[in-house]
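Can anyone check this?
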Amino acid sequence: MMRILKSREFLVLILLVAMVLAVASVNKAVLNPIALINIVNSSLFLMLIAIGQMFVVQTRGIDVSVGAIAGLSAVIFGFSLNAGMPLPVAILFALITGMLAGMVNSVGVVYVGIPPIIMTLGTLGAYRGFMRVLTGGSWIESIPQNIKSIAVTRFLNVPLMVWAVLVLVIVVAILLSRIRAARYFYAVGDNREGAYLLGINVNATVFAAYALSGLFAGAAAIVFVGQIGFVPMQTGNGQELKAIAAVVLGGVSLMGGTGSIYSAVIGAMFLTTVDSMMIFLKVPGSWNNAVAGAVLLAVVIFDYLIRRTVQKRQLAARAAEMRRSEQEADRLQPMEIAT
């Protein structure tokens, strides 16, 4: 219980509730159950992208192409539906597109040795360009309404997509807690050389991280298209920034080795709620990106300061232990000589 209370996720959750209550003092409409459910519903796209980003950041990497991967997956999803393919097949194509795009990043980072930020910046431009080539720069409209009908259908007044993502998060959390290989992401991010010496396949772990990042970006594209019913060329723009901010805010360190799926979920919820609260406060939407950038900068600095403080305390503790050992040795040495 104390571990939960001290976790970053719990702290962010408390700040989230405090923010909603503070805004409610100005505009009580924010406490309407429908408004709260809609905020959760609008966070699903970022939430799924952030979950994928979590795997990469845990291995001390970064993927700035996730927004473009989501956009490309959305295009393939839209084309598949407009071609008359069954919805399950179209969903499969979108997921495969996302995973393959993530695997391209994996190949560059793992086998070619390109730094993650450089590799994913390159694929960011490539995937955006490929989107434009495929669509001719036009939006994909007239998408069959079967996916849209799922998005607007509610159970217990909660959209089906919210329930679907909730089930997905729970299933993934259970799998990550029970699959031994899931701990490899932490080990590689915490100490790559040490993980290698322990027999962990470091290359396969990093490869899987970027592939999963692409897969979840593809899943986010499906949710996005279902919610709005068409595919704009701007799909996914800027989401890579928010995904990084979400995972770090939720407790996934940029130095790797920490965090959980709940970190990504709560972080995405927090950032989406910030945007929503600005609407309730009637702040112009042009401030959204500025606020997201400020939050990212703040959480990165905060994360760095925490890590540095912890490292200093650990070094101080080790130094104190060494001094005690030396003093004990000095105390025992005359006794040994006397005997």
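Reply from J.R.: I decoded it. The radius of gyration is 23 Å.
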